[in-house]
Amino acid sequence: MNAKAKVVGMLGAIGATLLGTLPVAAQSRTPQIFRSNPNSFPASSPVNPNFGNTFSNLVLPAGQKLVTRLAEGGTLYISTGETRQAVLQVDRDVVAANGVVLIPTGATIAGDFVPVAGGCRFVARTLNSRGTTVRLAAESDPILDVKDPRETGTGAILGDAAIGAAGAAILGAITGDRTVATEELLAGAAASVIIGNTTAPQAVVIEPNKSVELTLRQDLRFQ
Questions:
Q1: What distance in Å separates the CA atoms of residue 52 and residue 73, rounded to the nearest whole number?
Q2: Same domain, yes or no, for 79 and 167?
Q3: 195 domain residue, yes or no
Q4: How far is CA 91 from CA 14, 51, 107, 144, 176, in A?
Q5: Are 90 and 109 in contact (CB under 8 A)?
Q6: CATH number for 136
Q7: What is the pTM (predicted TM-score) of this model?
Q8: Which of 54, 66, 156, 160 is the residue whose CA sits 20 to 30 A from 215?
Q9: Distance between CA atoms of 49 and 219, rounded to whole angstroms?
Q10: Same domain, yes or no: 88 and 163
Q11: 47-78 pLDDT, tens per residue?
Q12: pLDDT tens digit sequence for 84-109
């Protein structure tokens, strides 16, 4: 081994000895790259199972009341024995026990007024709420009929009275009695009014501001 090789060997030995005495951190100046460990971060908080699915597993039980009224303005007259399609509008929010509004005011219910003894009842078919239509099993209590006010109102009474008075006058002309008394004319008018009120047909009258309360006959599930 020549002199140069010996010197290099001695220097290497001295360097190794010095490195052995230095702290480990000082032995290497090579920069270290730290990579994030995805498992080192805390797991994300679980999403609320009802967030974005507010109505999941909520149920309106059979027997729940729905307060409604006619969806369109104007009085609805339903004759005896008549079946009439109609749309009702929910008039009061239906709220679950947890405070969630399940059926908002303004939701619509389509169905039919069907005849029953003494009047009619509304039988629901579908509920339309928040753009979704579902089947709905609900109905109202019987709504009793009355004398059709179109036949017994002031206008009808005056018309009947005029007809009765005219009838009395015509009768006088036919019989040759040209001196039909005022009392006879009034009697004819009164008789027509009584007969008109007695024979006026029955009808169910639903005013625009009249509440129609429906009762669920089956559970309504929200999923």
A1: 36
A2: no
A3: yes
A4: 96, 27, 8, 21, 64
A5: yes
A6: 2.40.128.260
A7: 0.59
A8: 54
A9: 22
A10: no
A11: 222 323 566 678 999 999 999 999 988 999 99
A12: 999 999 999 999 988 999 999 999 99
132-135 and 212-216: which strand pairing? unpaired
Assigned domain for 26 exists: no
Range(s) of the domain holding residue 179: 149-200
Cα 109 from Cα 135, distance rounded (Å): 10
Helix (H, G, I), strand (E, B) or coil at 186: helix
Same-domain status, 170 and 114: no
Q: Which two tokens stand for residue 44?
A: 């994300």
Structure tokens at 180: 């039909």
**How far apart (Å, rounded) are the C-alpha atoms in residues 82 and 113?**
8
Cβ(70)–Cβ(86) below 8 Å:
yes
Read off the tokens for 132.
């979704």
| Cα gap 150→67, rounded to integer Å | 27
Q: Which tokens hold the place of 147? A: 């004398």
